[in-house]
Amino acid sequence: MWLRQLLGYVLLDRFDTFHLEAIAVYCGWHGELLTWPLSALLGFATSGPAPNLGSLRADFYEVLQDELDSYAAWKERQRYS
Asked: Count of domains in the chain?
């Protein structure tokens, strides 16, 4: 479940503003930081060729566009009310 959440954050960076190349998880019990390059992770996530991150981001935005736009409008109303 935490991996899906991290990937969701990666996909929300629609314009590649942060130039994310990897995700990381800190395992406090072991004092270790586990990192995975996004290219490798996307390759492991599919049985075929690794999907294009830009295409995945566009598809993700298309699915969530109405909700994201509604949230942005709500925040603007809060900010300027």
From this structure: 1
The secondary element (H helix, E strand) that includes residue 8 is: helix 2-12
Q: For 13-62, how does the pLDDT look when each residue is reduced to its tens digit (9 = 90+)? A: 999 999 999 999 999 999 999 999 998 888 888 888 888 999 999 999 99
Domain that holds residue 32: 2-80
Residue 26 has φ and ψ, to the nearest 5°, of -95, 125
Output the pTM of the full model.
Answer: 0.74
Where helices occur in 13-52 by DSSP H, the ranges are 38-44
- Burial class of residue 10 in the structure, from the number of CB atoms within 10 Å of its CB (0-12 exposed, 13-18 middle, 19+ buried): buried
* Residue 50 near residue 37 (C-beta atoms within 8 A): no
